[in-house]
């Protein structure tokens, strides 16, 4: 009975040198054994106690056996003492085991911390080795490429020489073949020349018969030319052409021979007719008595002419009647001549009068032209006088009527949002996280879902307007860049003013308005009236005045839609400079922007209060302009990811007063702002060191991260909703700081890498180390930016261009379940 508890209570000694086994398994085994031993000891003690009670009862009933029971009682007492000693020993061992378990847990924790640091060191070494290995591989690849290029060049040169040799050999062979052919063609050409000479001789023989044979000669010449063209075209088939030519010539010669025979017959006939004429001539000569025929014909012609002359003279000789008629006609002629002289005198007088009339007409025409010229000059002078009078009136209105200044101020201060469009209900005490979740829920109900990471980033960027006064939304068209500010304002209780930027904007007057000198009034744009209204306090209507719907106690949001259609440095540069001046000033001390309202008049001082937030959307295509470093330093650029799951929209819900959120007071908004950093030096130092190391890499490419960027990053992290909500929960706060810093890397730092060469030294010594930093992260927790970084390297056509936001899709921790 005494041996059993001894055996059950015995425990195995702890092997403290077994360091190779997992510590967690050792601790669990030891604790389980201690628990089982303690439980068994409790059962044994309970059994002994029950046995002792039974023995005592038996002793009370059996008084006669006192001696035996005394021994038994002593034995039981010793057993109980032994059991008690064993229990105490087990309790001590249990305490030792618990102490060892705590020590093991602490050692494991220290081991994990050491492993994290060693892991970071190893990852950095791996990154360096990877970079050096990549450099070596690239160098080897370049050498191999150079070697291969030299081999290809040598092979190409050898092939080129071989082809040249083959071409030279083929040219020599062709010359050897061509020489006999040319000699053969030359002989054939000589033969043709001989034949052509024969043809020419034949043509010379037949030249005397050209008149009769003209048509035949033309035909022969045409055939000769045709044969020459055929000879030129058919030199390769010269034998066949020569045979055809000889045949044709033979036919032509036979035809010519036949024609010549016919011509000889005709000539014989002509000779016979001439012989008969010669006989007739001889007979006539006998009749003329030996006189020459020419002289006889000449005398005959002279006699004929004399006869003709005498006949004409006889016909023209006048009669008596004709002479009398001639005298009468001469008398009438003298009368008519006198009448002609009289009429000539009258004509001369009339011509003089006509000349005077022409002179008068010319003078009248000149006077008419001068009159018209004077009338035109009068009209010009009258128009100039009217223009001068108008300008004088305009200048007089500008300099002599200062009361118009108030009228132009009133034109600017006309309320953009009417009283009936303003919701006077305000939101009560509400936490920032609750308000933000309400906005997200209303957006979902409306039919548009925004990733909570983007919604928090947009909200935080607006909160950091003191450091970065502009929030820019960029990304794929149709992803809700313009809808997010509108719905955020509508459901959140902000007053919203959209502004479509035009490509021809080149000054702030294009945005705010300008003085119209023609109408002598200031044409204020809606955004100027909205900005002026945002700085005026609410004034209720009374019997004395109409009141004014001021928005100074509300939060307002202005959206520059497609802001990079024109250069923001042209129309928004003065705004950025003035908004930056608010930093470090008192709440009531805000900068003013002078708005010109006309010549000689004091400009309207537009206050740029802290209750007006500025946002913009940006597309990236051939019609847009890129943002300069000046704008990027003063802005937070939020990229919208490319959608992978396209969302349907079942219905279109109108935005009206029924679903608009209650007014968000400026005091509530300012209560959500962290005006200074909420981090200790130890908490923020890893992030500062991360940016400094990145800045060292950027120096290789001639880029830098300025103080403003670091300050903006810390300000953003302090105002991130999850960081503020975490409070003293260090684990949750560390996670939120990591997410906020990742946002700022994309919004503030990655745009500074735009345009860096993705090859050579810039890639090896700048981009690759930065990528290694992003993968290693901070405190062993990397950033989900590797995929986006690789896309920026690949899609920029040799330059680094960050244009994706896949890291948001990769991080699903903020998405609702």
How would you explain this protein's 3D organization?
Helices cover 65% and strands 6% of the residues. The chain has 817 residues and is mostly helical. It folds into 4 domains: 3-202, no CATH class; 210-282; 322-385; 419-643 and 655-810, 3-Layer(aba) Sandwich (Rossmann fold). The strands form 3 sheets. A 5-stranded parallel sheet has the order 2-5-8-1-9, sandwiched between helices. The protein has a two-stranded antiparallel ribbon with strand order 3-4. Helix 3 packs antiparallel against helix 22 and helix 4 (214-233) runs antiparallel to helix 5. The relative contact order is 0.06. Residues 1-23 and 812-817 have low confidence and may be disordered.
What's the short version?
The chain is mainly alpha-helical and 817 residues long.
Total number of β-strand segments?
Answer: 9
CATH architecture of the largest domain: 3-Layer(aba) Sandwich
Taken together, the total number of domains comes to 4
Oligomeric grouping of the chains: single chain
The CATH class assignment of the largest domain is: Alpha Beta
Separation of the first and last Cα atoms: 63 Å
Q: Given the structure, what is the number of helices?
A: 24
| Physical arrangement of strands within the biggest beta sheet | 2-5-8-1-9
Radius of gyration: 61 Å
Query: What structural class results from the helix and strand content?
Result: mainly alpha
Q: Using the coordinates shown, work out and report the CATH topology of the largest domain.
A: Rossmann fold
- How would you describe the shape? elongated
- In percent, how helical is the residue content? 55-70%
Mean of all residue-level pLDDT scores: 79
* Major β-sheet annotation: 5 strands, parallel
CATH homolog superfamily of the largest domain: P-loop containing nucleotide triphosphate hydrolases
The low-pLDDT segments are: 1-23, 812-817
How big a fraction of the residues is strand? 5-15%
